[in-house]
Specification:
The chain has 370 residues and is α+β, with helices and mostly antiparallel strands. It has 14 helices and 14 strands.
């Protein structure tokens, strides 16, 4: 059935072979099980194929693993297209001699059906495009193929990229391209070709800091978010620890807009609390039950005689100075407020001031949120 399907979908006319051989890149056509059916002369040269041998029927994944490394995820990436179909061009193969190959592929289905009939693979040598950015011999456990370029960049939940020491973009994940509205032609372009000058200046300046010190850096910048709204990102940049002629800088941007918004809201809330506290003579307090911290207004100093340095922002400090006979009542009232769902409480008790004398205090409180 497989042979019948292939004979029906893949023409054998001489013109097909002529077209393939006129393509400078290596082109191979396989069946759904990755068995090679058609190929061009560039494929034979790439795979060091001897004339007395044939590629027919050989497994594409096995041959690709010989080009790069057997443990770097080539088979998983190719198997992925069987399940999802479509077009992909982000598999990179780093050969033992340091050459970088880009593998693009797409699936072909029978017209009018969803049945996969063939897989077309194109392999391109990137050396000329990279302009002498060469990668030297690398063992598989440090290989760039799956562990860096795909797993790190494409699977990152944040915008991520790699650029060389001169500011050329080598790789960006899909999220970074989406946010910055870049298409596949971004590769090997300089920062000034991709971004406005003021953005590129900042981009390159932070790269130089990493390159000059050899140390990772992180900082916050304003930038557009995924939905197009303005936001803030925390950038983390560091050197990629590879033995390359040109050093590589990795960048990742984490969206912290919500965190900064919450901080600003908290700052404004604290500022309003401070204004109110200064406008009234009574002591105003705010108890964060998650952290245990209590903020008290400056009026407490005049009411109790304790200095700002002596007043601690904890419940224990306060309870210790309550008259022993009143502490049980305090605990009961707090239990009603916190655990029994009472939204409001007021407590009258005796409090020991700085002069060791007790004053009668009336405390009122209500839960803001649970």
């Amino acid at each position: 059935m497989k042979n019948l399907l292939l004979n029906h979908t893949l023409p054998t006319e001489p013109w097909l072979k002529s077209i393939l051989n006129n393509v400078h890149d290596a082109v191979m056509i396989t069946d759904p099980d990755f068995g090679i059916v058609k190929w061009n002369e560039a494929s034979e040269q790439l795979l060091n194929q001897r004339k007395e041998e044939t590629l027919a029927g050989k497994n594409l994944i096995d041959l690709l693993q010989q080009l790069g490394s057997s443990n770097c995820g080539i088979d998983q990436r190719l198997q992925h297209i069987i399940a999802n179909g479509g077009y992909e061009e982000d598999i990179l193969l780093v050969r033992p001699g340091g050459e970088i190959l880009k593998l693009s592929y797409y699936t072909h289905k029978l017209p009018g059906t969803e049945k996969l009939s063939a897989i077309v693979v194109v392999i391109r040598d990137l050396q000329n495009q990279i302009d002498q950015t060469q990668f030297k011999e690398t063992e598989c456990n440090g290989n760039l193929n799956e562990s860096i370029y795909y797993s790190y960049l494409d699977n990152s939940l944040a915008p991520a990229w790699i650029s060389d020491e001169e500011g050329h973009a080598l790789f960006m994940n899909k999220l970074a391209r989406q946010i910055w509205h870049l298409d596949e032609t971004y590769r090997f372009k300089h920062a000034y070709e991709l971004f406005p000058k003021h953005v590129a200046d900042e981009f390159l300046a932070s790269d130089r800091t990493v390159l000059n010190t050899g140390l990772p850096i992180d900082f916050v910048i304003p930038s557009i978010r995924k939905d197009g709204s303005p936001g803030f990102y925390k950038l983390h940049k560091f050197l990629l620890p590879l033995n390359t002629i040109k050093r590589l800088v990795v960048g990742q941007a984490v969206d912290i807009t919500e965190e900064i918004t919450m901080r600003e809201e908290l700052r404004k809330s604290n500022e309003r609390f401070s204004y109110v506290a200064k406008a009234v003579a009574d002591c105003i307090w705010d108890w964060d039950m998650e952290t245990g911290k209590i903020n008290r207004s400056e009026a407490l100093m005049s009411l109790t005689g304790y200095s700002a340095q002596e007043i601690e922002g904890t419940l224990d400090w306060w309870v210790e100075k309550i008259h022993p006979e009143d502490r049980k009542l305090i605990k009961e009232k707090l239990d009603e407020l916190i655990n029994k769902g009472h939204p409001y409480c007021d407590i009258e008790y005796r409090f020991r001031c700085a002069n060791n004398r007790y004053k009668y205090f009336l405390d009122k409180g209500s839960l803001v949120s649970r």
